[in-house]
């Protein structure tokens, strides 16, 4: 049966990139449509009238929005290479931690932005502290629990990939938030993504990302650009 | 098979723990209920949910699960009869989407309608009316969001009752009225009539008193 799978996304969004990881892990062919969030397409507004946001997955004409909802849909529709565990309790743990990651990320991102924006030293420090508080919550949980289902990267890891955005943006901005010393477990995890064949296809290209962060976060140019990949 | 041990840590007034009660009762699962005092959390609760330290927590044969939607999915996958979620992946996605909408959009807006004043309150009321219209779009002509019987989204939408009771307690006009929201209004009455569901709402008088005490001083002057 011919499948038609479309993904509406924004190249720089970690929430869209996670859907790409899921689709690639399943080997699902899809058409990607890049959205300009300042000029949303009629198609996007039609497919996600409630939130008008990306990502939206459209499968044989039927739209699904919200990244965790999309990921579960993908896992239930293409059953090979499961993303979620089979056991109900382990599944519950995966869902719990994925939610925890998303909740904490949204809590820490304003701090990250504050730290990145050019401005007073004090404001930058406050931003870093704010972000690190929430990163610490993630680090503690990662250290204590083996929540990364063994060797394979699954639902929780896919959700956690958004940490790369902090790593990359801090490299660009010359700000230190997610450091190897303070967050060894999280740092090790981000390395896993960089090394993984599927994940590394799903991170934004370096040069455009630099330009994006410079423009969006309005920070001073980093004095040194480190090679990240 | 070994006997099942199911415990639920909750509070009488929490829509989130009441959701779990509905799910367990729909499945006919026997459970021990532990009422928590959130100003003095039990060591057991703190042990079972050290991350968020919140209710509800379901403990099944010693293993704890937290977060109401995570618990509901766990219940559905563990006790497979009388399914709460539909079988079809797309319909499951819709139930999850709208349940997330209720917690992330509706719940904060509902709280605002009760505590905000003047223009801000009016804005919150308009917003929530639109949200409920969106929910009507999902319900359409069905008896319940789950079809002929209660499903995941019906249970998630229990929060609407909290808004209705709060408005009654504070002498506010009902946002969810038959004129403006006939479809949802009908659904609400069917929900409250349902044999299982109606056991899982806070006792009315106590609930009204609770809201009067908590929000009584923030009634907007008209």
Can you tell me about this structure?
The complex is a heterodimer of chains A (229) and B (222). With 229 residues, chain A is an alpha+beta fold. Helix content of chain A is 56%, strand content 7%. Chain A has a four-stranded mixed sheet, covered by helices on one side. In chain A, helix 1 links the parallel strand 1 and strand 2. In chain A, helix 1 packs parallel to helix 3, helix 4 packs antiparallel against helix 5 and helix 7 packs across helix 10. The longest helix of chain A has 29 residues. The relative contact order of chain A is 0.12. Chain B is an alpha+beta fold and 222 residues long. Chain B is 54% helix and 8% strand. Chain B is built from nine helices and four strands. In chain B, strands 2-1-3-4 form a four-stranded mixed sheet, covered by helices on one side. In chain B, strand 1, helix 1 and strand 2 form a beta-alpha-beta unit. The mean pLDDT of chain B is 94. The chains are: A alpha+beta (229), B alpha+beta (222). Chains A and B meet through strand 4, helix 3 and helix 4 of A and strand 4, helix 3 and helix 4 of B.
